[in-house]
């Protein structure tokens, strides 16, 4: 039977199997639905399976890390249900390390969607959003029910809505996080699209992408290995096989790549590092951001990172809509109060250091702006809108 991994007596938190969770969620199944699939597969494979209720409880223990998957029947059922190998689902390299090296972090997912003013106003009314602000930008904000974690929705007056989903994770390695990230991105985009379409009554909203920021609060690494791990956390996809989104990556392969890079080092010109030695480590890339506050009282706060990314993603989405209209052969149409003069003011606010802004915050802001290329997008959108206006 499955061994209880939580009964260690040393106070360590169980480590969830994010690969199992991601595979199940990718199929749109709850644990009860997976238990019924196990029952069906058991008959097909001529396996003796426990009762449905017992299997649902076992699935919960396996996914949350409270029990290791040691029963050969369950191993066969998982592999058959997810059409994967034991290496892909359970790994082989991290089993021993998982008990002593746990990476605790908060995953912050940002999902921007362009709505336009009409749908945005409708969303604010129907979702009961209340006035708020993000740094200098006024907006409307409200809580949204999401099964995976804390979720807030921000509606910015230039026609963009941004979801912020925070999920607490404990993973044995970055490879597991990379697998989970890839498997949940499509689900998150689909959820955001369907949620907005239901609230607005329109089929036009589409969530095109998700950006992640990882706030590390429990590190199994130190020294140069920690620096390398933070770079990998800012772009974890480098651990996965290349291929289409439909191709399922291998956890075993990702763990091998991770161990090699942690041992030999990893550098990428697309990563912009920020932070102050001894206080914090931060890395920003096109794919995302990672931050580790080593001195929590003097490092950046979570709200600093979240507010920065909320603004950047809301503005990036707005600029993308301007470029999209031009590429479709149309003159870009935006609300008069959010034309090229407004973009010029926004660009100044984002690029110029504020009198009371700390060096750490300025370094983070510059790194995020550089790697997201938002400055270039703002400049191009400004020129396109000014040309269209004839001024």
Automatic annotation (TrEMBL):
Protein's UniProt name: Uncharacterized protein
């Amino acid at each position: 039977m499955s061994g209880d991994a939580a009964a260690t007596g040393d106070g360590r938190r169980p480590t969830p199997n994010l690969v199992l969770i991601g595979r199940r969620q990718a199929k749109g199944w709850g644990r009860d639905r997976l238990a019924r699939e196990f029952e069906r597969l058991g008959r097909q494979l001529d396996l003796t399976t426990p009762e449905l209720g017992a299997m649902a409880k076992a699935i919960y223990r396996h996914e949350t890390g409270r029990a290791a998957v040691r029963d050969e029947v369950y191993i066969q059922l998982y592999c058959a249900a997810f059409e994967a190998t034991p290496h892909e689902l359970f790994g082989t390299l991290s089993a021993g390390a998982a008990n002593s090296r746990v990476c605790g972090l908060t995953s912050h997912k940002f999902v921007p969607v362009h709505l336009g003013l009409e749908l945005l106003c409708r969303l604010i009314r129907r979702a009961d959003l209340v006035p708020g602000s993000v740094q200098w930008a006024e907006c409307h904000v409200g809580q949204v029910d999401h099964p995976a974690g804390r979720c807030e929705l921000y509606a910015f007056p230039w026609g963009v809505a941004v979801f912020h989903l925070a999920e607490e994770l404990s993973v044995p390695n970055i490879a597991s996080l990379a697998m989970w990230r890839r498997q949940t991105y499509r689900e998150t985009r689909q959820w955001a699209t369907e949620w907005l379409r239901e609230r607005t009554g329109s089929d036009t909203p589409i969530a095109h992408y998700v950006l992640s920021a990882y706030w590390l609060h429990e590190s199994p690494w130190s020294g140069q290995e920690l620096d390398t791990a933070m770079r990998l956390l800012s772009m974890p996809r480098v651990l996965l096989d290349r291929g289409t989104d439909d191709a399922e990556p291998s956890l075993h392969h990702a763990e091998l790549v991770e161990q090699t890079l942690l041992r030999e080092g990893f550098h990428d010109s697309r990563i912009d590092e920020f932070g102050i030695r001894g206080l914090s480590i931060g890395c920003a890339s096109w794919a995302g951001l990672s931050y580790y506050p080593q001195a929590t009282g003097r490092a950046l706060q979570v709200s600093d990172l979240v507010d920065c990314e909320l603004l950047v993603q809301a503005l990036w989405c707005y600029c993308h809509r301007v470029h999209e209209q031009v590429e479709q052969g149309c003159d870009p149409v935006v609300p008069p109060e959010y034309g090229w003069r407004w973009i010029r003011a926004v660009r100044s606010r984002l690029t110029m250091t504020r009198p009371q802004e700390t060096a750490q915050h300025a370094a983070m802001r510059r790194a995020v702006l550089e790697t997201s290329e938002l400055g270039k997008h703002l400049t191009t959108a400004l020129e396109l809108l000014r040309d269209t206006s004839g001024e």
